[in-house]
Design a protein that fits this description.
Strand order of the largest sheet: 1-9-8-5-4-2-3-12
Helix content: 25-40%
Structural class: alpha/beta
Order of helices and strands: HHEHEHEHEHEEEEEHHHHEEHHEHEH
CATH architecture of the largest domain: 3-Layer(aba) Sandwich
Radius of gyration: 21 Å
Number of strands: 13
Shape: globular
Distance between the termini: 21 Å
Number of domains: 2
Length: 378
């Protein structure tokens, strides 16, 4: 059967092309142009972070955080194995070892009660991942980090417009990293942002992001010429990409609400199956506000998930599974180690199936998807 409902359709508001044309007419399409600054300011105001620097991807935002922390060969960073490879890559590229700990089966986030036991004299940082825009238990994680003098780098790739106890995700640790990939709630195709909590890191971040120069100061008129100050690279997106993103930031509340409507619709329509014990639905702790980044269900086991996946595709629906746990991958075996027991990471990852969810998914489409899930179990 031909596909009726894709897993994802990149968000589009209608103003993206107008703003990109404006960027071209400004004759400023390289990094740190007017739209880049507008996006950074918007995120700073929305999250309360000290500084936001747009990057070409969330991967590069995380790499920038690792550089700012001066992560070195032999260091260790604690993170969940159930995450995208970029969370580990940023630190492995600096020579660090990834130390994986198990996840909680309810939120699919790192189990905060297992972190402290994984700490050694080599541990430098903790990298919690806010899966599906649902926060990790940041109070406990920050307490552990403070006790052991560790940095925290939040992988909030899926977390824009979400919060923990009233505070925006990405603003708890030294650094937070957002993604604006085409699959995210707000998109610039490829893109990301580094959120900086402590102002002491801002100048170094600007220098590393601008190929190791103080060019940012030059553009602000603080120096008469810019010089090579430190190691660095180019972590600047094109202003045309930022223009595309800014059109969506302006409608961030509307986009989030539209996704939330479909998320709630899925929950309502599929709750009877959950009550019968046939599937499990996402769990949102009461002190967390999520952003409807994804709606997933958990089947009995891997075999059932594969059969449901095939059934939905026959009905013209494209669902998606998610991460293969990093510790079981070739690079995970080479660059990391799993601390403790893999009680939930592999088992829960094999049960999870994501349903289509995007900005302009219609109520009728969501109802069709839910009906086909119900039909499978009938």
């Amino acid at each position: 059967m031909s596909i009726k409902i894709n897993f994802n359709v990149p968000p589009y508001t209608g103003k993206e092309v107008d703003y990109m044309k404006e960027a071209i007419e400004n004759q400023k399409i390289c990094g740190d142009g007017p739209f880049t600054r507008k996006c950074g300011k918007w995120i700073e105001e929305q999250t309360g972070t000290a500084r936001c620097l747009l990057t070409p991807s969330c991967t590069q935002a995380t790499e920038l955080a690792a550089l700012l922390l001066d992560i070195k060969e032999g260091d260790e960073v604690i993170l969940p194995s159930y995450t995208f490879v970029s969370t580990a890559d940023a630190f492995v590229l600096r020579g660090a070892r990834a130390v994986f700990v198990d996840i909680r089966p309810d939120t699919m986030n790192i189990d905060e009660t297992l972190i402290e036991d994984a700490i050694t004299e080599k541990t430098r940082a903790i990298a919690p991942v806010h899966y599906a825009g649902v926060s990790c238990e940041m109070d406990e994680i920050m307490e552990i980090a403070k006790k052991h003098h560790l940095a925290v780098v939040e992988d909030a790739a899926q977390g824009i417009m979400a919060s923990y106890k009233g505070k925006a995700l990405g603003t708890f640790g030294e650094f937070g990293c957002f993604s604006f990939h085409e699959t995210k709630n707000l998109s610039m195709g490829e893109g990301g942002a580094l959120l900086i909590r402590d102002e002491k890191y801002i100048e170094d971040a600007e220098i590393i992001r601008e190929k190791g120069t103080d060019r940012s100061k030059y553009h602000r008129g603080q120096v008469d010429k810019y010089r090579w100050q430190n190691y660095g690279s180019s972590y600047l997106p094109s202003d045309m990409n930022a223009a595309y993103l800014y059109a969506q930031l302006e409608l961030a509340e509307e986009i989030t609400q539209a996704r939330m409507d479909r998320w709630n619709q899925y929950k309502e329509l599929l709750s009877p199956l959950a009550e019968e014990g046939k599937i499990e639905l996402p769990y949102i702790p009461g002190h967390c506000v999520h952003n409807a980044h994804m709606f997933y269900i958990k089947t009995k086991d891997l075999d059932e998930r594969c059969r449901l996946d095939a059934f939905l595709k026959e009905k013209g629906i494209l669902p998606a599974s998610h991460y293969v746990p990093l510790h079981s991958a070739p690079a995970g075996l080479k660059f990391g180690r799993f601390h403790g027991e893999d009680k939930y990471t592999t088992k829960e990852s094999e049960r999870l199936l994501r349903l289509p969810l995007f900005y302009k998914l219609t109520a009728d489409e969501a109802e069709y998807v839910a009906e086909q899930v119900r039909a499978f179990y009938r």
